[in-house]
Amino acid sequence: MKITNTQRVSYPACRFIGRKYLDGDRANNGSFGHKWGEWFQNGWFEPLEKLDALAESGDAYVGLMREADPFEYWIGMFFPAGTEAPEGCEWTDLPAMDYGVCWLYGKEDTGELYGMDAHSRALASIQEKGMAPKPGGYMFELYNCPRFTTPDEQGNVILDYGIEVI
Question: What's the gap between Cα 46 and its chain centre?
Answer without folding.
Answer: 18
